[in-house]
Amino acid sequence: MRPSLSTLLTGIAALAALLVTAPTAHAADPPLRDLAAAKGKAIGTAVTGSKLTGTYGDIAAGEFNWLTPGNAMKWGSVEPTRGNFNWTEADQIVAFAEAHDQDVRGHTLVWHSQNPSWLTNGTWTPAQLGTLMNDHIALEVGRYKGRLAAWDVVNEPFNEDGTYRQTVWYNGLGADYIAQALTAARAADPAARLYINDYNVEGVNAKSTALYNLVRDLKARGVPIDGVGLQAHLILGQVPSTLQQNIQRFADLGVDVAITELDIRMQLPSTAAKLAQQRTEYDAVVKACVAVTRCTGVTVWGFTDSDSWIPDTFPGQGAATPYDENYAPKPAYYGIVTALGGTVTEPPVPAGCSAAYSVPNQWNTGFTGNVTISCAAGSSLSSWRVTWTFGAGQQVGQAWNATCTQTGAAVSCANASWNGGVPSGGSVSFGFNGTWTGSNPLPTVTLG
Ligand code: G3I
Predict the structure, then answer these.
(1) Active site includes 156?
(2) Substitution candidate for ligand 1 out of 71, 155, 197 with most atoms within 8 A of CB
(3) Does residue 50 line the site of ligand 1, with CB under 6 A?
């Protein structure tokens, strides 16, 4: 990671005013890239070159200090037929980054996917394969020599159980293809930081341990390896609890770590509760990187839900990125803000709106709770969340017309997809069944 001096200075100045405007159509002030730079971290996004104008271009340039071409630098993109090269989109993204004082992560040189068909359909001897791989690296890395901060040299080399993935490279050259690729990349651009990048290696598991052992062995052999990329294509509710510990163990090997392709997908439709949970999880992932000195930063795999690979690949899932399809920042965006040390001022609840808690029914160890959110004439809400803390060990069970979670004594209930709106002079209610023993005092509820 090498943020420019001007980026650092902007970030330091920005720290003087870490007040962030409320989650409306417009994003944070200061932007993410200034918050990140003040912490010496990268905040990046994958981009599509053809979209880098208008609002998409403004956000890509204004909020991020690193860019990764989502597809433009893959072998199938740059050499679709043998000897015929198309660098248009890759060149465009690099030029855009330079114009906006951004670093570029090259992605990716040696992979089993998105290779040109002439390569995958060909029959090659090991010697021919080695030459093809080395020449490709020399050409592509050489083209951008001195201009790219990092390269994902080898992408996705492992299976889930930690064995090597059977790819054209592994099958032809053996596991040493990885060392050969890194060595070729170093020769082509000594200044670029060289990474191995993979998915499902965010927590401590068999696959990440295989990657760990590989990096340790490469370091011991003197093979040029500078960093490990944890892609972090995550699922809502399944952020690995060992993320920071895993980042730290790689850092302790003497390499950098980057979170390279973060997204957190959910089953659609999204709800206020799911988006709130996603915010917490974005915050947690970015915080795990911020906490480890050698974690260089976090890149999101597309910053808007309109430019995400998830809906095509996982039908029925989506809403995985920090901005919605209309480029409005989502709660997840504010999770990144808080993890980077910014402060989010929540939109104030209108004075005319309030929540009231009652227990319409109670029996030996059970009860029904009811909460009504009301707005006086002239006040309204478009979404709501009601929180309280139980005083006598009560426990929320099944809820209706809201999504409720309880952690210890603290309960948080958010509107369902159909009842976020509370009109002027109107009200909405939700209910739940709970359990109690001894006593069942009414908690004080907060509308937020
Ligand atoms: O460009 C063609 C277009 O001409 C055609 O009309 C269209 C029809 O399907 O396809 C377009 O190509 C698509 C390409 O993205 C560009 O949008 C491919 O079908 C599609 O398969 C390809 O998906 C990419 C995916 O890698 C392939 O594995 C995603 O955009 C890209 O975000 C994704 O990125 C990978 C990382 O490189 C490695 N880690 C996992 C990550 C997610 O799969």
Answers:
(1) no
(2) 71
(3) no
CA of 312 to the centre of ligand 1 (A): 9
Q: Is residue 444 part of a domain?
A: no
Give yes or no: residues 397 and 304 share one domain.
Answer: no
pLDDT of residue 408 exceeding 90: no
pTM above 0.90, yes or no: no
Q: Which of 236, 238, 341, 252 is nearest to 295 (CA)?
A: 252
Of 315, 339, 363, the domain-final residue: 339
Q: Say whether 212 sits in a helix, a strand or coil.
A: helix
The label of the residue with tokens 């040299």 reads 153
The pLDDT, as a whole number, for residue 27 is 60
- The answer to whether the CB of 241 is under 6 A from ligand 1 is no
Q: Report the residue among 114, 207, 235, 259 best suited for mutation to probe ligand 1: largest number of ligand atoms under 8 A from its CB.
A: 114
Residue 116 pLDDT more than 80? Answer: yes
Look at residues 57, 155, 51 and name the one whose alpha carbon lies nearest to residue 102.
57
Say if residue 322 is in the same domain as residue 418: no
Q: What is the pLDDT of residues 97-115, one digit of tens each?
A: 999 999 999 999 999 999 9
In angstroms, what is the span from residue 80 Cα to ligand 1's centroid? Answer: 14
Together in a domain, 423 and 400? yes
Read off the CATH number of the domain in which 216 is found. 3.20.20.80
List the catalytic residue out of 63, 156, 202, 261: 261
Residue 149: inside a domain, yes or no? yes
Domain endpoint, select from 270, 304, 339: 339
Cβ neighbours of 130 (radius 10 Å):
19
Q: Note down the domain range covering 146.
A: 32-339
Q: Is 63 in the pocket of ligand 1 (CB under 6 A)?
A: no
Q: Encode pLDDT of 17-47 as tens digits.
A: 344 433 333 466 799 999 999 999 999 999 9
Dihedral pair phi/psi, residue 85, rounded to 5°: -110, 145
Q: Residue 197: CB within 6 Å of ligand 1?
A: no
Q: Give the helix ranges, DSSP H, for 64-167.
A: 75-78, 88-99, 117-120, 126-143
**CATH number, domain with residue 428:** 2.60.40.290
81 is written with which tokens? Answer: 């037929």
Domains: count for the chain: 2
Is the beta carbon of 260 within 6 A of some atom in ligand 1? no
